[in-house]
Amino acid sequence: MPSPTRPQVVPAPASLTAAHSPAGLFAQYDLDRTYDEMFAAPGQARPQYQALLDELATVSLDDLRRRQIEADRAFLTQGITFTVYGDEQGTERIFPFDLLPRIVTAREWDTLERGLAQRLIAINLFLKDIYNEGRILAEGVVPRELVYSCRHYRREMRGVRVHRDVYVSVAGTDLVRLEDGRFVVLEDNLRVPSGVSYMLANRAVTKRVFPGLFNEYNVRPTAHYGQALLATLRALAPPDRPDPTIVVLTPGVGNSAYFEHAFLAREMGISLVEGRDLLVHDTIVYMRTTSGLRRVDVVYRRVDDDFLDPLAFRSDSHLGVAGLLNAYRAGNVSVVNAIGTGVADDKAIYAYVPAIIRFYLSEEPILPNVETYLCGNPSDKQYVLEHLDDLVVKAVGESGGYGMLVGPHSTAAQRDEFRTLIKAEPRNFIAQPTLALSRAACFVGSGVEPRHVDLRPYILYGEKVTIVPGGLTRVALRKGSLVVNSSQGGGSKDTWVLLE
Amino acid sequence: MLLSRVADALYWITRYLERAEHTARLIDIARDLGLDRAAAARPRAIERLYSGLGLPAEGERSLIHMALFDSSHRNSVAACVMAARENARQVREEISTDMWEQLNDLFLRVRKLQESSSGGRTHYVSRVIVEGVHLFAGITDATMGHSEGWQYLQAGRFLERAATTATLLDAFLVEKGDAGPAALDQADWVALLRSCSALEGYCRRYTADVRPERVTEFLLLDAECPRSVRFAATRLETALRAIARYTGHPSGGRAERLSGRLRASLDYGQVDEILSDDPHAYLTSVSRQCAQIHAAVYQSYVAYSIETALPA
User: Fold this and answer.
1) Were both Cys, which of A268, B32, B119, B173 would link to A230 (CB 3.0–4.6 Å)?
2) Which residues form the domain of A414?
3) In chain A, which residues have their Cβ closer than 8 Å to the Cβ of B93?
4) What mean pLDDT is predicted for residues B61-67?
5) Which residues 246-265 on chain B approach chain A with CB closer than 8 angstroms?
6) Are A100 and A492 contacting, i.e. CB atoms less than 8 angstroms apart?
């Protein structure tokens, strides 16, 4: 965080100083202008964190370290690892886990739940519209060229009938909390959002290391995510297939999220398949089993559009299934998420989501957006080029923290590189003010310190919108860092949504 | 229901491990034989063992190194263990965690040995591999459901065993450009038995009087020796019969039938007839039948053509 105000060291809460090590666990805990999830003011905990603080007052630093080791081991032995691209050496790593849960009150959750559902419903109406009559484009609410120039817009989806009109049925929306405590939407992940397995694994491990705390709190369970996802996928099966065969399609063991694909397949009790396990004959999708070909009705694909069908998209893809698009267009198989949803999480379209909500639902957005400059607009571009060192610049079609410039933390050379890139392809970039992400208490080995966090809840949409109460709280574990992506040195922690 | 790709990977895990174990045993025996011999007799004995591995004969040191650690050689122990692990990694979810950890551990140990170069430690290396493979087999039986997938692990192991034991026996019975088995001395036959962990079993059956026809009978036709061709063929048939039952596959009978035929010919084989007739032709036929069974497994369960498999 570029913190214009110097951080002040907070005197540790009285209840915490005396009990243990001389300096106290919270000796290095400082508050700055960002929203602190745990403390409302120096020494004054937010009510939902009091029981956690009381528990911490009873444990020693060594004890916390032991629990950290225990937790790390649990992740390692369960093989909960991810792969880092562009790293030649041992590519499997554990996603760093922070011991202390992040707590969301029932009230806060209620707003989030309503806001996320509203957003997803509107986005689905938008996708249906742009792939069919295009009302919103005709009325000029969203510029036509912005949609058609999007790399993830799929012409092939024009006029395709999507069952229940649900295009995005699994979304992972990134939220951050600003200085005033409001949650805002940072980005929508509407293609193949990942991370939900960490949400579930974090809960399982936290239960193990803080068993007592669960008695103090009324934490809403998340363990039924697998069932909820299965129900969602079932609801999306072609209507003439009453007992559908559902599969998870993974790019394979080399993919960074392979663990999650396998995990979800197991949670749902369905097959984990690769492209080479599937084939299409007469617009019917089959999987190759030892007992012969078996018809597949729903493909929960974790493969990007580009690689999904070499006949329709990238012909060099070995990950997909030749003919899948045709089978899909014929209505013989459901692909979840639908093809072409990436147009709605394009970071330039993102700027229009509030307008999209108003257009289709005639409602005000419950969750606000972050102010966004579209470099495709000449005046915005000018502003962005002049303020590169204050802004966060993002390539519109990227995700996972790739293709991003954090202005205040950048070098002159990086800014020059982005300046050239933006000038060459303005449509490809947006910029946002550098946000003061809220900070949550994290155990850093020598004590408890605040670190920047975001929140990614997972939203399901089959028959109706379902949100399992919780989410993945990602942590920028490096002190001061704002980048929470796992590929960029981020970690995560358990997220508790309280019943009341 | 099992994906064809998964069945294929499971089948190859155990085939590769069996091959690694077999090679490791032979290397150890070769080393032992080399030590017992007069220098002049050494090259021949070594050559014979390596022809049983399908390796070209060069120098002893480099051969041992090649057979153990040369990852570029398809049949080397290192390459086999690596291939087994890669197959297991592809189907990580289908095998138990204990199995994966054991196989991964074996892989890491082999890699470490590979780096530290094994001068003079052939016996140790061989033990590591044989034990590692045995441990994997035991863990497999104890921790994985004995379902259709498990049957593919069985099929791979015993098909490979039947084929390698037959090839090895062939290398001993057919002494190139020579007077045949009679040219071998007792130590060679003892070495052969030991390479199959069969010396003790042999002695209990026939006493320590080691004769070529008895060794052949024991390794080819014995029903109880776990490394004999007949024993392996029996287990193979059991596994393939179970698979045919699981899949209810219309053409699944072929692999089962071929393995049944191989087993039956071994059940009723007579060692004196085989030896007086043409042992080389007999053993070649065993190898050929193994190849046919492999092809039938593929045809029925893994790489079947779409047309034949489409629901009518």
Assistant:
1) A268
2) 373-433
3) 262, 265-266, 272
4) 69
5) 246-249
6) no
| Disruptive mutation site among A290, A295, A296, A321 for chain B (greatest number of B CBs within 10 Å) | A290
CATH code of the domain covering residue A409: 3.30.1490.270
The reply to whether B146 touches chain A by the CB within 8 Å rule is: no
- Regarding beta strands A404-406 and A448-452, do their DSSP bridges make them parallel or antiparallel, or are they unpaired? unpaired
> Domain segments of chain B: what residues?
1-144, 145-312
- Whether residue A306 is found in the same domain as residue A381: no
Answer yes or no: is A442 within a domain: no
Asked whether this complex has an ipTM greater than 0.85, the answer is: no
Of the partner residues A274, A279, A290, the one whose CB lies closest to the CB of residue B306: A279
Distance between A394 CA and the closest CA of chain B, angstroms: 35
Give the residue from chain B lying closest to A277, CA to CA. B5
Query: Which tens digit of pLDDT belongs to each residue from A142-153?
Result: 999 899 988 899
Quick one: which of A264, A286, A64, A25 has its CA closest to B305? Answer: A286
Residue of A nearest to B303 (CA): A288
- pLDDT, tens digit, for every residue of A428-469? 899 999 888 999 999 998 899 999 999 999 999 999 999 999
Stated pTM of the model: 0.85
Name which of B89, B246, B249 is nearest A292 (Cβ-Cβ).
B249
What pLDDT sits at residue B131? 95
Count the domains in chain A: 2
Nearest to A433 by CA among A217, A105, A114, A179: A179
Which of A390, A415, A433 corresponds to the end of one domain? A433
Q: How far is A254 from chain B (nearest CA, A)?
A: 9
Query: Hey, is the C-beta of A404 within 8 angstroms of any chain B C-beta?
Result: no
The rounded distance, in Å, linking the Cα atoms of A287 and A277 is: 5
DSSP state letters, A293-356 = EEE--EEEE-S-HHHH-TTTS-TT-SSS-TTHHHHHHTTSSEEESPTTGGGGG-HHHHTTHHHH
Token pair for B92: 């990580």
Q: For the segment A116-151, what is each residue's pLDDT rounded down to a tens digit?
A: 999 999 999 999 999 999 999 999 999 998 999 888
